[in-house]
Amino acid sequence: MRLVLGSLFAFVVAAVLGLGATWLALSRGVAFGGVTIGAWTAWPKSGTPDIDPYARAVVAQTGRLPVGSGDGVAFSAQNDDRGRAFDGRCEVVVNGTTPPARFWTLTLYDRDGRLVANSLNRYGFTSQEIVRRADGSFEIVIAPRARAGNWLPTGGVERYVLVLRLYDTPVGVASRTGREAPMPAVLEGACP
Amino acid sequence: MIRLLLWSLGGILLGGIVHLASVLVLPRTATQDAYSRLEPTTPVNAVSALPVPSPDQTVLPFMDPAFAVAVCRYDLAGAPLKLTTPVG
After folding, report:
1. Confidence (pTM)
2. SS3 string of B25-72?
3. B51 touching A, CB under 8 A?
4. Predicted complex ipTM exceeds 0.85
5. Number of A–B residue contacts, CB under 8 Å
6. Residues sharing a CB contact under 8 Å with residue A136, sequence separation 6 or more, in sequence order
7. For B14, which of A14, A65, A105 is closest by C-beta distance?
8. Is A137 in CB contact (< 8 Å) with chain B?
9. B3 in contact with A at a CB cutoff of 8 Å?
10. Distance between CA atoms of A64 and A67, rounded to whole angstroms?
11. Which residues have CB under 8 Å from A184's CB, separation 6+?
12. Whose CA, among A85, A87, A101, A152, lies 20 to 30 Å from A159?
């Protein structure tokens, strides 16, 4: 009787711990081989056969198609450089330059990966349509209300994710620091 | 008391195995991965363009709206697949 009760207890502990750890790992996006530069994180191996099992599980569970490693790399950010989570009611400024790339896009999604509706039907910027300063750097203001310059509307959603995709770029698994890959700074500003 | 601790220790070790096994098995059993989402709408052995993502409908999450995406689900059971495309 004690053996049965004991093993039952052990099995319950195992199921709760094991499945709980799996659920946590997948919902938090824990995966090995991530490249974090400032607020931005990328998993360059996600587009290769060497993808690690955690990233593979996340890809399968969410149904996304990762960018192939020959095409480019996708950096995503949910917090600004100070670690504050993006709030769609606040103003967020993306400022600086991107690593060398033939073409890049910056897109705003909600946390489930859907585009956010807004009256302009503007969901992001590409490197071809952005307004730059004389030195080639740029500033994108992500805010609920219209701004001068490069304005990306948030539609007033509470939480969102920014994804910066660099196509045809030398940035990859070997990139580790901001000097090799100068990512734009992300700072959350005034909240109404 | 000792017995309970031992059972817990066994449970924790077994939990680690359950965790690793579930992570490894999940991609094979997932019902909502990209392939299953595309299966009802795309033909086999033909290239078909996916609709441009919009806030109301998106076939797959985190699609880049700056790009047009086309997929070809292929089946090599019958014969090899030959793909030709105009370049430029």
Report:
1. 0.86
2. HHHHHCCCCHHHHHCCCCCECCEEECCCCCCCCCCCCCCCCCCCCEEE
3. no
4. no
5. 133
6. A97
7. A14
8. no
9. yes
10. 10
11. A94, A95, A96, A97, A98, A138, A140, A164
12. A101
Tokens of B34: 């990209």
Rounded to an integer, what distance in angstroms lies between the CA atom of residue B11 and that of residue A187?
A: 45
Residues 6+ apart with CB under 8 A from A185: A38, A81, A94, A95, A96
Tally of CA atoms within 13 A in the half-sphere of B22 that contains its CB:
20
Nearest to A60 among B17, B22, B33 (CB): B33
Structure tokens at A13: 């502990």
Tally of CB atoms within 10 A around A113: 17
- Which two tokens mark A91? 């103003």
Interface test with B, best of A22, A26, A43, A65 (most B CBs within 10 A): A65
CB contact under 8 A, A12 and B53: no
